[in-house]
Design a protein that fits this description.
Blueprint lengths: L1 E7 L6 H13 L4 E6 L14 H11 L5 E4 L1 H5 L4 H11 L4 E7 H6 L6 H7 L2 E4 L5 H5 L2 H5 L21 E3 L9 H6 L5 H4 L2
Parallel strand pairs: 1-2, 1-4, 2-3, 4-5, 5-6
Helix pairs in contact: 4-6
Bound molecules: adenosine-5'-triphosphate and nicotinate mononucleotide.
The site of adenosine-5'-triphosphate has 19 residues, from strand 1, helix 1, strand 4, helix 5 and helix 9.
EC number: 2.7.7.18
GO biological process, one term: NAD+ biosynthetic process
Family: Belongs to the NadD family.
């Protein structure tokens, strides 16, 4: 079983998440993608962050419950740092091949995550393009440190099964949608979503 983990704030979930999940399912030959709602991104301010259950409900609305599944497992594990969450998931599901999924903005800031080198050694990573972030990501500190672990995208179908450190950059159509833009345009009003 191969599962892609798309960790995120989902404040709110949107079409960019769905595009990323669908592209990863196909390119990485995944059985499922989990939209793993973060109880609180350690690098994001709490201000402006909708309550967890509102963000989970938002992720559930874009999921299909079959190949793309919204989950509160990170909150139930009581974790916020990805390195801890992935370690616990691997313990709990020893037969699953997990792949960490993220947009290029994630790779650009990965070197600020807790024990990120350890994380990159624990789980294969697939990065998808995002407008404005491709160049900062590929020229950033994490991509530089991990340059010898980068695999060509033609190996994507077997990335999930790789034992050692491995990451790849997938080509994909880009979508400039963001949760920030949706919040700023007033299309996501958590107060009314809580009713
Ligand atoms: N339009 C997009 N294209 C590619 N990846 C995306 C896109 N939107 C979000 N992602 C990725 O999905 C994951 C979760 O993102 P998140 O829930 O923070 O959404 P966001 O739109 O980036 O939010 P915000 O604008 O509040 O920072 C991250 O890995 C992010 O890179
Ligand atoms: O572990 C960390 O130090 C860390 C720092 C920043 C972000 N993350 C994770 O990155 C994922 C994307 O976060 P976000 O808020 O950009 O959607 C989400 O699962 C976060 O928990 C993790």
């Amino acid at each position: 079983m191969r599962i892609g983990l798309l960790g995120g704030s989902f404040n709110p979930a949107h079409a960019g998440h769905l595009m990323l999940a669908r592209r990863a399912l196909r390119a990485l030959r995944l059985d499922q993608v989990w939209l793993m709602v973060s109880p609180g991104n350690p690098l994001k301010p709490r201000k402006g962050m909708a309550p967890f259950r509102v963000r989970l409900a938002s992720a559930e609305r874009i999921a299909d419950g079959r190949r793309i599944v919204a989950t509160d497992i990170e909150s139930r594990l009581g974790q916020r740092f990805t390195v801890k969450t992935v370690g616990l998931l691997k313990q709990r599901f020893p037969h699953v091949h997990f792949v960490w999924l993220m947009g290029a903005d994630g790779l650009a800031q990965l070197s600020r995550w807790k024990r990120w080198r350890r994380l990159a050694a624990m789980v294969p990573i697939a990065v998808l393009p995002r407008p404005g972030s491709v160049s900062p990501a590929l020229r950033g500190a994490a991509a530089s440190v991990l340059r010898h672990q980068r695999r060509p995208s033609r190996e994507s179908p077997v990335l999930a099964e790789r034992k050692g450190s491995a990451w790849t950059f997938l080509s994909a159509p880009q979508n400039d949608i963001s949760a920030t833009a949706l919040r700023e345009s007033g299309q996501f009003r958590p107060e009314s979503d809580q009713e």
